Amino acid sequence: MSRAVLSLGSNMGDRLGFLQAAVDGFRPELVAVSSVYETAPWGGVEQEDFLNAVLVVEAPDADEWYWLRRGQDLEEQAGRERLVRWGPRVLDVDVVAVDGIASDHPDLLLPHPGTPDRATVLLPWLDVEPDAVLPGHGSVRDLLARLSTDGVHRRTDLALT
Ligand SMILES: Nc1ncnc2c1ncn2[C@@H]1O[C@H](COP(=O)(O)OP(=O)(O)OP(=O)(O)O)[C@@H](O)[C@H]1O
Ligand SMILES: Nc1nc2c(c(=O)[nH]1)N=C(CO)CN2
Predict the structure, then answer these.
(1) Is the ipTM above a cut-off of 0.85?
(2) In what residue span(s) does the 7,8-dihydro-6-hydroxymethylpterin-pyrophosphokinase domain sit (predicted)?
(3) pLDDT digits (tens, 9 = 90+) for 7-28
(4) What is the CATH number of domain 2-154?
């Protein structure tokens, strides 16, 4: 069984609709969906706030590349264009971690190297796995305790179904 943690983000157009489309795309493999968070952009590009969420997915015969490909297919279906690094996007699907796998392949770095510094990933991850461990980095709770969560707000009025 392959178990992956995926991070979703959108800051253009119907943000919740794009996240929901990703959830629907992963429906057969879906184990858990976090709350939706409204988050101030990190990365230095001036842009609209994001909606972020985290999914846990599982499939019996998948490997880590399967999850990357599935995420990229869904980004493409959403009409994503790669214009600016860390810039606006209709849908971003990052593979945060797959089981305990470490990968330094540039097309699939695992765990995703941005994760330890991103409250926009760690906070929603804790919703679905309160005892989560980021392989090689320790508990998600401890990683999050080092970070500011200013600008990361749970949207109780929005939900992915
Ligand atoms: N763990 C991963 N999850 C998703 N894409 C990855 C991962 N590791 C490497 N990549 C590669 O990153 C590229 C996509 O980068 P993308 O434009 O989505 O980055 P970004 O989301 O803007 O920035 P960041 O990766 O820092 O969140 C793809 O070529 C993909 O193969
Ligand atoms: N808050 C927030 N900021 C971002 C995000 C994101 O998902 N959330 N993704 C980016 C590009 O990957 C750039 N900046």
Answers:
(1) yes
(2) 85-96
(3) 999 999 999 999 999 999 999 9
(4) 3.30.70.560
